Amino acid sequence: MTIREEAIDYLQLIDGELRRAHDGGWIETVNPASGQVWARIPAGTADDVDDAVRAARAALDPWRSLPAAARAAALHAWAATVRENLDILWRLDATGNGRARREAEPAIAGAASQIDFHAGLAETITGDTVLVSETATTYSIREPYGVVGLIIPWNAPLAMFLAKVSAAIAAGNTIVVKPPERASVSVLAAAQLIEKAGIPPGVVNVVTGEGATAGEALVKHPDVRKISFTGSTATGRRITENSVLNVKALALELGGKSPNIVFADADLDQAAAGVVAGIYTASAGQACIAGSRILIQKSIFDEFVERLRARASAMVLGDPLDAGTDMGPLAFDGQYQKVREYLESGREEGATIAFGGRYGRALFPAGSPFADGYFVEPTLFLTEDPHLRVCREEIFGPVAVAIPFADEDDAVRVANDSGYGLAAGVWTQNLARGHRMTRRLEAGTVWVNTYRRLHWALPFGGQKESGNGISNGPGTLDEWLEHKSVWIEHG
Ligand code: NAD
After folding, report:
1. Would the pTM count as exceeding 0.85?
2. CATH code of the domain occupying 259-455
């Protein structure tokens, strides 16, 4: 089975059928590297969400009643079809959001392995026997929520779709997914593979459309028992308000403004490579875990900034589909505008630009196919004031800020002075300091002498305003399971 690559109009997957939106509306999808429209997706409505939830409800009992081994077999078959179609899938994903091939391709290959990992976990769902009475047998079991909803962002839509959906359905749920309106094509293409893998109609449904319509309808739907949301903290707040209406369970993976801390005793070459990979080649900074606050010890500040400048100036910007490209464009026009506003705001607040700051046509020769793309060059602001907007707010672009610190205590103080708590990096050759810092930093993931490494077998989640959900790790299916206690009175 292969996907239709030539398609221009992609369709929703509802009850095993490829469908347009109820009211016939479409959303145009722009290739961010060229600025040209390349596909259309249905502008799904509350009626589409309702159809999808109904299909998921109808599919629920047969799916959750299957032996876990049968669910696992279907998931392994799904992973195999993803691998067979890897080349088409990463291209569609990278065309949709501009993520460079060297990131997009391994991310989707990794997600196929994650489907296999979740298939294995399907057969490990257990309960506890807790005997609390002489006259009763008492135990707990874990069961799926039922129909669940998944809302995902545009920076890694397909990898996130494959990873989250496979965990949810491995646990026995059926699901309705609302992918990001600016980058849904790869998800719609991949949805065509689901039933070919033997997963029955209605188990996985995909409704596209705007967050304010399709997204809100999913969150407010009374038959959806849980929402897993990945996206901005602002949208997470709105979803929290809406899910209160019917006391819906919620898992939130939100934004970040992660510190990447370089001590004078670090291997500076290794640190410079890691810092650049943590922000600029990290999907042009459009990564929740981007190391966007670079804290540098005062004694090496100027020297380290020079090292970053040298590496950033050697980066190749251009076609995301080209294996030689280091950094693609920002994913869509709105994000491009937002990042340019931050470039302005940083200057106005008095930060100095160490390098970068240019965008759009200034980056390409006249007549280049990328002249109308949404490119911003790797940029570094310098400031001693960690309270500037560019130091506190998530920019989600290739724009970092470097802040000097005096010593370990100072580094911890500046690093933790943030509403976010998603990730942090530490560069030091002092092992004791590395260990101390992992305890002192308020973050869901801390890397020492590396950055932006994730693995499906290691838990991932945010502290503070970066969220409350935990995905990945041996317990990842827990996100999709409820507890039930049982008392059997036998006298
Ligand atoms: P976003 O919050 O704008 O949108 C995310 C999704 O929510 C989209 O599908 C959108 O349509 C939907 N949505 C928007 N409004 C909605 C509403 N009122 N009700 C229901 N759904 C709604 O985020 P984005 O701009 O697409 O993505 C970038 C953000 O995602 C960044 O803040 C980034 O840090 C975060 N992110 C976090 C993680 C993580 O694991 N913590 C991973 C990737 C991205």
Report:
1. yes
2. 3.40.309.10
